Each structure stands twice: as C-alpha cells, then as structure tokens.
Amino acid sequence: MDRRTFLETTALAGVYTIASGIGAAEQVNPASANPVLTIKTQETKGALPHVWEECLGSGHAALALRQQWLSDLEFVKKTTGMKSVRFHGLFDDEMGVWPSEFRPPNFLYVDMVFDAMLERGVKPLVELSFMPGALASNKWTIFWYRGNTTPPKDPSQWGELVGSLAKHLVDRYGIQEVEAWNFEVWNEPNIVFWTGTKADYFELYRQSATAIKKVDKRLRVGGPATATAAWVGDLLEFCASQQVPIDFASTHAYPDDPQAKMFGEGVHYPFEEVLPRALTMVQKQIKSSKLPDTPLYLTEWCSQNPAFIAHTIKSTIGLAEIMSYWTFSNVFEEQGVPKAFLNNGFGLLGMRGVPRPSYYAFTLLHKLGDVQLNSDEGPVLATRRKDGSLAILVWNLIPQPPGQHTSMGDPLVQSSMSYETTGETLNLSLALDGVHSHAQVRITRADDTSGNFHRAYEAMGSPAYPTTEQIAELKQKSGLMAPEVVHVNPQRQISISIPPNGLALLEVS
To answer: Which of 145, 199, 247, 383 could pair with 368 as two cysteines, CB 3.0-4.6 Å apart?
Structure first.
C-alpha cells in the first residue's frame, strides 16, 4: 500500500512565500547578479529553539541492541545535539515483553535499550507499539520484523501492559527522569500500521493515557502519531469530551504525501511547501479545539537534501515543539537486511556509520544560535549565539521536478535518497549591518563537493563489501572540507556562491 505517492508539483514559484504566519519571503533569483540580502545583526526577531534536535527517529526497538546502532547513536548525539530517539516496536514479540497470555510483562530487553540510551545522554520518546502476539486479536503484521498491527483482544490487558511499563520505568529511573520523557500511543493508526477503526484507536489511546496517568500525573502522553497530518482535531475533541488526558498532539508529514488526503481535493502545493502548510493546518485545528494550548510534535519527516532540510527548518519556525527527523541511522530493517552498502534506506548516517549529506546539514544547524536575527527575506537563517558571535545559514534550494519521488516517506517502499542536483549556482551578497569593518567570517559548506558520500564511494570503485580500512577512508574522504576564512569588505558585505542544493554556514566573529 503506497501512502507516500508523489504528486506532481508545480515549479518553485514563491517557494519562500509560506503562508504560515511566521513570515513570508521571496525566492532569490539564482540568475540575477549577486542580489544583496541585509542582515541586521543588532536586531532580534525572536527565539530560535532547536526543535530539530529534540528527537530523531530510528527503526524498531530491537535494533538498539546492536553495537553499530549504539555507535551511531553516540556519534550523532555528540555532533548534532540530539536529545531523544523515537522508534517502533517496543512491545514486539522479539522484545519479549509479553511472551505468553498468562505471564506478567518482562522488561529485561527494554531495560537494556533504555539503559544504553541514557548512558549516552539520549532519552527515549516512548512509542507504545506494536501489539504483543499474546494480546493481539489477529495475526496481521507489518514489515520484515513482523510488528503486529491488530487491536488487543481485551483493551484492559493493553492498559495493564502500558501501566506496568510506566511503573517499571518510574521505579527504575525515578520520576524526575521519566517525567521529562514523552509517551506516544502507537504509530500511524490511520494507515497500514493499524487494522482497527478510528474508534478502536481512540479506545487504545484512552487505555494508554489512563494507565500512564494512574502511575503518576506528571508523566506526559499524547498521539495520534498519524500519517498525513490526520486525526489531530478528532483526537482532541475525543479527549475533551471524554475527559481523557492528553499532553501533546503528534503527527507525521512527508513532502510527497498524497495531498488530497492531507489538504483535501483540489488543493495542491509545491513539494517544498507541504510540510509548513501541513503544520499550519494542524495548528489551526488545535487552536480551534477545546484544548487550544496543546503542544504539537512532528514525529516523522525526512529528506536527504541539505538545502531542503534548511528550508524546512526555517519555514516551520514556531509551528512545532519537536521536529523529529526520520531517521538518524541506516541501521534500519523495515524491508529486511539492506541489499547494498550504498542503499536507499533512511538515515543521516549510511551503512557502517558513514555520514550522508543530510547528516552534515544537521551538524551545521547545530551550530546556529538560539536567537534569530532580522534579515531580508530569502534563503538565509541568521542567528546569534550566547557568546555574541553570529551563525548564518544560507542555501540554494532547487525546485523538485515533477514525478521524482525523493522524501523516502513510503513505509513500504524506500525508493530513493536522491534529489535534484542540476540548476543554477546562487550568487549572493550578504550585507552584515552592525558588524565591525574587518570582521572575520568562517565558511563551512555541505554540497556536491563537500560532504559527498556518493562521490567518495564511486571514486573508490563502489566496492560491494568495503573493508574496514576502506570504510575509514570513506568517512575521511566524505567529510566536510576545511572552512574558508575571509573578511567582510569595507561595506561590511561578503559574497558567496552556493551550488545547486548546497548549504553553507557563515560564522562571524
């Protein structure tokens, strides 16, 4: 079942004119001669919480028992600042949580996973899925690892399982730790991950939220974790009318989601606008509900394109409190064991921890400050750090051509991690209003020549089974080039050229 069918997009006309209420911008024409964007370095626009670092996704829980997964986790934590990880399948039979109908829950493997994460400074965003076989009403499963997608035979048994987990976690780690976590009920119950009805899911949610709050009211629970930004308003209405607790609303959106399902028939947005439009739509549903202060979490989104990632972060500022990218590691087996070293699966890191361009986008985003500065509108995100230095991200986003499927959003067909690399180079001049006349600027790039895993792998001869020495060489040769160090000119300007879908970080001191 293809839930991420790519619909033809229009040209990138006004890609930066996002009707999100956060601020509109006009696309800079790459063909023009050095358009000037002014950054007012002494004028703040507001806070810039690093919501993209709050959580990153993974595959299913049992993968966290592997050394490569743990190595990738430790590496990404140190270099991108990620705070938590969300994954499917905590209750899958391979985790041994409820091995038979008459035995109490067994959390030995859960402890191994969460202990290892916490030792590395990463919290779990606890997705409550899938159905243990002993509790399930049927044997229907999804993916290679056979996550059971059916409702429980007895909803109260599911509530017992969730309550037992919550109590175990509080007993083991303490309420001061676990109250900082989030418990999310199921994954995408509006598509192939759930064989029950919407009403069945709402009952599952009721059982889960009630059980968690019974352990301690400080524990945080939410949902519906739907595909295509669906059901959020409906779940809030259910919770308000039935007095069921909910601490956050969560949903998923990919840029190639079927727009008729997301926005309704006759509505169509360019590929690059889908995510901010979807979050804006859901925020309106929340604000018009009886629970208007409910935080919104986007717990899945994806792209391998560095410029698209930067554009998405800027165009969704203020729309979600968590932007959980799917996924941090290529230790990922929804469709089984990867078939090639350079594969089309998810992950900021590729096989054996080799960084991809998307990873470098996150490392550069991590270096941004927590205060946004005023600037002319365009492909720029200017910030100030706590030490007073400036960090400015600029990019050259190329329109997505019609018919190309690139977000890897399909849960059953991870079909491509490629994106358009042809197009015009963007030549920009940045006027840094307020810096001293001899300010130094360090420029770090992520583009086709810097941070390119594909190019390094092909130059090596594309070995099917790289040796450990070759893997180490790949990591070194696919790294970012050393930063350029330049100075602003007497007019306090700096010129920069950015190749198609490239990204650059300017650090000004």
So the answer is: 383
Is there a catalytic annotation at residue 300? yes
Instruction: Quote the tokens at residue 247.
Output: 């601490």
| Contact status, residue 415 vs residue 427, Cβ threshold 8 Å | no
**Residues 53, 203, 273, 300: which is the catalytic one?**
300
Phi-psi group of 385: left, alpha or beta (phi > 0 → left; psi -120 to 50 → alpha; rest → beta): beta
> Which residue in this structure is represented by tokens 């041994």?
96
Which tens digits make up the pLDDT trace of 439-475? Answer: 999 999 999 899 998 889 999 999 999 999 999 999 9
- Domain with residues 51-366, CATH architecture: Alpha-Beta Barrel (3.20)
The one catalytic residue in 53, 188, 272, 273 is 188
Domain ranges of the chain: 36-47+372-508, 51-366
What is residue 408's predicted lDDT score, i.e. its pLDDT? 63
The CATH class given to the 36-47+372-508 domain equals: mainly beta
Q: Which ranges of 256-373 does DSSP label H, i.e. alpha helix?
A: 259-263, 274-287, 306-315, 357-366
The secondary structure of residue 194, as a DSSP letter, is -
In sequence order, what DSSP letters do the residues of 232-282 get, joined into one string?
A: HHHHHHHHHHHT---SEEEEE--TTS-HHHHH-TT----GGGHHHHHHHHH
Q: What is the per-residue pLDDT for 42?
A: 93
CA distance 285 to 255: 20
Cβ-contact 64, 307 below 8 angstroms: no
Q: How far is CA 402 from the centre of its chain?
A: 24
CA separation for the pair 325, 407 (Å, rounded): 11
Q: Per the structure block, which two tokens stand in for 117?
A: 């994460």
Give the pLDDT of residue 109.
97
Query: 155-173 vs 108-119: helix axis angle to the nearest 10?
Result: 40
287: tokens are: 């604000």
Q: What's the pLDDT at 5?
A: 34
Q: What is the arrangement of strands in the sheet containing 484-487, beginning at the earlier edge strand?
A: 484-487, 440-446, 503-508, 390-395, 380-384, 371-375, 36-47, 426-433, 493-498
Known active-site residue 458 = no
How far, in Å, are 33, 141, 314, 373, 381 from residue 424 at the CA level?
Answer: 12, 46, 22, 28, 21
Placement of tokens 């309106």 in the chain: 284
**Cα→Cα distances 426→49, 86, 201, 373, 497, Å:** 28, 36, 48, 22, 6
pLDDT confidence of residue 438: 84
Q: Which residues of the chain have pLDDT under 50?
A: 1-32, 414
**400 class by beta-carbon count within 10 Å (0-12 exposed, 13-18 middle, 19+ buried):** buried
Residues 6+ apart with CB under 8 A from 354: 453, 471, 474, 475, 478
Nearest to 126 by CA among 32, 209, 45: 209
